[in-house]
Amino acid sequence: MEFRKNDLVTITIEDFGSEGEGIGKVDGFPIFVKDAIVGDTVEVRIVKYMKTYAYGRLEKVLEPSPFRVEPKCAFHRQCGGCQLQALSYEKQLLFKQEKIKNHLIRIGGFSPEYVDTHMESIIGMEVPYRYRNKAQYPIGTDREGNVIAGFYAGRTHNIIPNQKCWLGTEENETVLDCILNYMRRYGVTAYEEASGTGLVRHVLIRKGFASGELMVCLVLNLRKKSDSGRFLPRQKELIDSLAQIRGMTSVSVSINTERTNVIMGKEIHTLWGSDTIRDIIHVRDMGQAGYPYTGEKLEFMISPLSFYQVNPVQTEKLYSLVREYACLTGQETVWDLYCGIGTISLFLAQSAGRVYGVEVIPQAIEDARENARRNGITNAEFHVGKAEEVLTGGKNKTGERGLVLPPPNLIVVDPPRKGCDGVCLEVMLQMRPDKIIYVSCDSATLARDLKVLCEGGYEVAKVRGVDQFGHTVHVEVACCLQRKDL
Ligand code: SAH
User: Fold this and answer.
1) Which residues pair with 300 in a beta bridge?
2) Which residue's CA is the nearest one to ligand 1's atom 22?
3) pTM exceeds 0.85
4) Is the CB of residue 468 below 6 angstroms from any atom belonging to ligand 1?
5) Quick check: is 441 catalytic?
6) Cβ(476) to ligand 1 under 6 A?
7) What's the CA gap between 433 and 425, in Å, rounded?
């Protein structure tokens, strides 16, 4: 197919790519179009073409798809955050179900029939807005020199000013207003990435949905505190106004002077209130319609640096699903690798013999231990380290002795997007637990790792998506594997 850059073509969108782009064809030649939806007939300008496919920019929707809806957010096309807002939520769920299925087939090597018989239908959200308990807003300066907060335009670090994100809480707007007013009033500078100068880089806001508690952490490019021991000029004025906001529980700063994309610095100082906020996660009965509460619940403490699932309502369903998959009898030894602040460990500890959590961030492990104490759980212990380094069973690559934990009946893993390290998979196979439950936020790396585990003697018993990230292309998946020879 011959295209030239800037050619205009008319296509009908037939499919979605894994990043949510619409795919249409001209004489069988695929064109990927961001913001176009299956069923749309669109006019597209070719912006880049390769040997076997091209990228087009959506110029005009000539005939809208029946699955098109009016997005709530005026910035949905510019923002890098949501990719699917113009698609009905019902179809978003179908897209995610198909995405998981395709990865399992194409990357995992499973047959379509196998996937169809073992995959349960995705668990969607009742209200796919205002679901995020965490927001990280970049702070910058516009051309006129005004301090702004907003979001990065897709794939860039240009900040588009917008304090209203429909995925986050309403309090986010109030907190940002408060911080921007303070910065404008006292001439506090925003960080400038190009020069590495300026003070305030990001604002992190977290809310415990069940407790109503709010946490604000300002990320500062600051080498040295002022002589008076303050981190911010007129610090008291900022704290006084933040403290007025209903639910405000913790105000802190994080020091990050590195010229990197990493948002948070490792050093945290609490300026006001508590170091942490609380949240409650209820156990749900996943076997019944509407997934009602069972009455059991756990309280967690969250600090600025520790990982905590961003969608608390769906997290209850995810963890309850893990518990259902685990089918514990009260005797089992369980390993929870990549355990964060111990959420899954503690969810399982109530019906297991003993649970061992492993996690690389020391602060998260401290939180996990405190969370166990708070919930009166005495059969869970937590260890700091990389799963692939501490669990060698003997010596690791550098000759140090690793952790020797009692052999598990069940291993749960919940790694970041890049999936499990090869050594970690090897150790899991060597330990030969009856069951492995793999929780994943990236179905491609999940499928890759499942292939290794299935070649190593396991089979997928059940797999199910849980939509934690409505309007984005991301999806969480829980997969239950069983040892084949049992
Ligand atoms: N299961 C937890 C956390 C899941 S997120 C929950 O549901 O809340 C993944 C966690 O893995 C993060 O806390 C991250 O800090 C941790 N992590 C990343 N790489 C790791 C590694 N190599 N070994 C152990 N933990 C790791």
Assistant:
1) 279
2) 386
3) yes
4) no
5) yes
6) no
7) 12
Find the angle CA(155)-CA(160)-CA(161) to the nearest 5 degrees.
Answer: 150
Q: How far apart are CA 295 and CA 284, in angstroms?
A: 8
**Pocket-testing residue among 134, 262, 307, ligand 1, by greatest number of atoms within 8 A of Cβ:** 307
Cβ atoms of 419 and 452 closer than 8 Å? no
Please give the distance of CA 432 from its chain centroid, rounded to a whole number. Answer: 29
- Write out pLDDT tens, residues 75-105: 988 887 899 999 999 999 999 999 999 999 9
For 76-113, the DSSP string reads TTTBSS-S-TTB-HHHHHHHHHHHHHHHHHHTT---HH
41-49 and 54-63 beta bridge pairing: antiparallel
- Provide the token pair at 175: 């907190």
SS3 119: strand
Number of helical (H) and strand (E) elements in the chain, helices listed first: 10, 22
Tokens, residue 178: 């408060």
The pLDDT tens digits of the residues spanning 375-398 come to 999 999 999 999 988 876 555 555
- Which residues contact residue 234 at a Cβ distance below 8 angstroms, ignoring those fewer than 6 apart? 182, 186, 188
Angle between helices 443-455 and 89-106 (to 10 degrees): 30
Specify the residue for token string 């490019």.
221
Residue 458, both tokens: 């396991």
Q: Are strands 267-273 and 248-255 parallel, antiparallel or unpaired?
A: antiparallel
Partner residues linked to 159 by β-bridges: 152
CA atoms of 171 and 174, how far apart (whole Å): 5
| Under 8 Å between Cβ of 482 and 461 | yes
| Three-class SS state of 379 | coil
Question: Residue 195 contacts by C-beta under 8 Å, 6 or more apart in sequence?
Answer: none
CA distance 250 to 276: 6
Q: How far apart, in Å, are the Cα atoms of 231 and each of 176, 227, 393, 465? A: 19, 10, 45, 44
Catalytic residue among 73, 82, 420, 441: 441
